[in-house]
Every structure is written in C-alpha cells, then in structure tokens.
Amino acid sequence: MIRRLLILFTLAGLVALPFLLRPKQRPSENADDVVVVITSHNEAIRQEFGRGFARWYQSRTGRTVTVDWRVIGGTSEITRFLEAGYVAAFRRHWTDVLQRPWSAEVQRALVDPSVAAAESGRAVRAAFVDSDVGCGLDVFWGGASYDFARQANAGRLVAARVTQEHPEWFTDAVLPQEHAGEPYRDLEGRWIGTVLSSYGILYNRDSLRRLGIERPPEEWADLADPRFAGEVALADPTKSSSIAKAFEYIVQQQMQRREIELGGEGDRSQYREANGAATPSSRSSVRAAEEDATGSSGPQPRQPAAAIEQEAVSEGWLAGLRLLQQIGANARYFTDSSQKPPIDVGQGDCAAGICIDFYGWAQMEATGQRGAGEPRLGFVSPRGGAVHAVDPIGLLRGAPHRDVAEAFIEFTLTMDGQKLWNLRPGTPGGPTHFALRRLPVRRDFYAHEEWKPLRSDPDANPYATEEQLIYRRERTAPLIRELAFIARVMMQDAHPELVRAWRAIQHAPELRRSRALAQLQELSPVSYERAQGEIRRALRSSNRIEELRVARELGEFFRHSYTEAERIARGE
C-alpha cells in the first residue's frame, strides 16, 4: 500500500512540476507596453536586447516594456510565415471591407510583385498598400538584405520614422547607403542594417599541426590544399543560405580577379597585394588548369570594357566553381546546419570549416585557450574574398504596437543598442551575460578609441580600409539558387567519386596529373550561360520534375567525369 502511494505521489509530482515552476504571469502582463518581434536571432541576442531596450525605454518614457519574441526558425520559415499571415489578413480585408470576390489571381497579385505591376494586378496592389492590414507582428529583425528587400517589394515592410527623426544617422559618416557594393539600408527607410557580418575560415591549430600544415589558411584557395583531405567542414548550400552566400563571394572574387587580369576596371597592384595573386603558394591548381587550357598566363589584348566584363564574369564563374570543387573534394561532410562546422572544428573533428564570422568568434570564445598560450582556434576572413553585409530591421505593415515598434527600431541604431553587439559582458554599456561578438553597423562606433579596452574584438573595424572585393550584385545574386544547386550536384551528390578522383590525382605523375585534373574540371554543362538559361528555367519551373531531371543529368555527368579523371590519374 505504501509503495503504491509513493508511486502515486511521485507521478503527481512529475505532472505538477511544470506548473509549479511556471512563472505566475507572463512578463508582458506586468509591463505597460509590449512590442512583438519576429526574428531569427539567437537566445543570447534576444536576452541582451530585451533587457537593454527595457532599460532604455523606461529611461525615456517612464514606462515599462517587454519584447514578445516570436521565433519560428530561420529566415526562410519567417518569409513563408509572413506571406501566409498577410494573405489571410488581406483576404479578410478584400472580401469583408471592400466587398470584392477573392480568387487565385488576386492572391498571385498580392504575393508576386511582377504580377502586381501588371495592369491586372494594380488594383490589388493599390488596395494593399493603402490599407493598414497586419499579421499581428510589429517588427521583423535579422536575416539578409535580400530577404528584407523582398518583403519591402511585396509591401509588407513600411518606412520607419527613425530616418526622419534622426537624419544625421543616415550619412556616409554614420550609416552609409552601401559599402563595397553591399546595400546597408533601403532608400525609402523600409529596412535598415543594424549589425554587420562576414564570412571566413575557422581553423583548429592542433589539427593543422597534426596534418603538417605550418601556415594557417588565409584565403579560400588554401582550403583546396590536398593535405586538408577529409578535414573541411561544409554546410549544404541548398539548406544553408549563409554557406550559399560564402560560395557566392568565392565566385565573385574569381570574377574580379579575372576582370583585372583582362585589363578591366580596378587597381591591379592593390588587388594583387591584397589577394596574393602573384605568390606561388596562393596560386592554386585552379589557376594552373586555366592557364594550361588557354596556353597563356600573360595579359590579353585590350578589349572594350563591356566585352572584358562579359568574359571575366563567364570565366570567373567557372574558376569559382573549380575552386569550390576542390574545396568540396576535401570536405568531410555537407551538413544541413551552418552551426555544425564551427562546433566540429572546435572539437578537433575537422581541421577547418567555412562559417559566418560571429559563429567562428563565438566558438573561439567557448573553446578558449590553453593557459597563457595561443588560442586553440583561429578565424580569418580572406582579404578580397568576402565583404561585410548587414542584418536589417524593418517595421511591418499594420503593426499593432507601432509607437513601441518605432522605439525598438530606434534603440537598435542608438549607441546604447550598438554597444551591446561588441562590448564585453559587465562593461559599462555592455551586455549583462553574453558576449555577442558582432560588429556594429554604425561607422562612428569605431571612432571611439576609449571603448577599445571594453570591446570583445578591439581591433576589428570593417570600415578601416576599403574592402578589396567589390560585390557586384547583378552578376551572381539573381543566380544564388542556381549556384547552390550546381554546388550540390557537383560536390555533394557525386562526393564519393569526387574524393576518389581527387586523391588519385594527387598521387599521379605530372603528365597524367595534368590530364586528369583537366578532366575533373570540365564544367561546361554548368557554365554561366547554362546557369542563366536551362538550369534557371528548370529550378523556377512550376513543374518539379524539371528540376529533378536536370539534377539527374548533371549528377550522371559529374559521376562519369570524376570516374574518368580517376582512371586517367591511375593510368588505366
């Protein structure tokens, strides 16, 4: 009997425990005001900005406030959620208020700006932008400028008044319109960058010593070193927008290099100094294969600027894919999560990995160093191989708490908000518990020398020198999905064949090695022109079978090509 009672009491306790530990009231129930923010930012950022905004808001208004965070996943999930929410809300407005019939054509005009721009969709577009239709959310925060531009073009983001209240912030001296080709804010104020991020290589010094690599990687081409075989951590570019962006920068760098070599625009000496283009150690086998194919490594006859650019873009696209191919040949895996590579590098399971800078810095902070010695991990953003892009913030149409939402947006751009990104925990004006290890977007933040001792990264200044890579959005941004698709079928789907061929090539005599490498790097089926044409049409077709067909055909091509390259390398 006693045993049964003990079991019953134990079960009752387990059932009651969540209710006993639950807060008596939600924080928003105790606050005077609330703002609802949908975000992809992590828990550390949410906690520090929630606390910081509450302090700042109360000091200005005398009222308490809480941030009601809505976290549903990454930017792609947020995009789908916002679209569904606004479609449902506008449908009620269209049918109940305007007394008009709903149809599939009306919905297409609402969600597709190209349809809305056509004559048939103008009435729908006008009705939406003239309304105050909302989805119950106030602010969208975190992601890429591309994602925010899409939301703005769809009419879901509206201009925030901070641009009118603080015009002194929106200048080249504080928050430029763009930097190194990357947009930092919307001209109409519908989205504004709040923090910067870039991409680079996280490496484990112990692993480098184990592999006999004396010099840490400094540029993307260093990851093509055969000694990194099976040691590079990569994410699937079709699952991770961050790794797809890093791949885009790798391709853009090759385009810019090729344009300079052909005599196009740019400072050749400055670019070569920044990128080490003339040093034997950095001249990868990608470049060697190109020179073997053309029969010359010298300067080409001068051509018109447009012709030079067209040639540079096409050849740079292939050069970038060849470099990605070699890095992929050294890959240990292709994970769905962009957060896994830094963890595995930190644990020593991989020697190096490509990641966002703040993931790398956070892993360095978590791993620490051995006593008074050097840190176990290192992170480098390749000079000339990446630019700093923004994580924006935007005011959503129909925000139910608009005044508080406007205040939250303003706070993220004040120095009080900017300090949270890079000051150390516990320092005056810094975060309370977490070192966020991000770079503030405001240029004037870096002019405060007195803050350097308080910063997590005192030497980091994205505005200190001109970025050596000038991002040209029109060259690759419209093909980012195609690039990720090509990278997947080229590296991931045929990975076993690629690895075998790559290893056989490293052990082949020079003559067979050159022939096998040329076979491996035959990429005409995924040229820039094919990516713009057949591949783009297949990926954007409403018929999913088209995408599967192209994936199958390209997969078969690469598997056959890699098998043939291995055969040549082995002399069979």
UniProtKB/TrEMBL annotation:
What PANTHER family has UniProt attached to this entry?
SLL0237 PROTEIN (PTHR30006:SF24), THIAMINE-BINDING PERIPLASMIC PROTEIN-RELATED (PTHR30006)
Origin: domain of life: Bacteria
Protein keywords: Signal
Give the matching Gene3D superfamilies.
Periplasmic binding protein-like II
Task: Spell out the protein name for this chain.
Answer: ABC-type Fe3+ transport system periplasmic component-like protein
Q: Where is this region: Disordered?
A: 263-309
The organism of origin for this protein: Opitutus terrae (strain DSM 11246 / JCM 15787 / PB90-1)
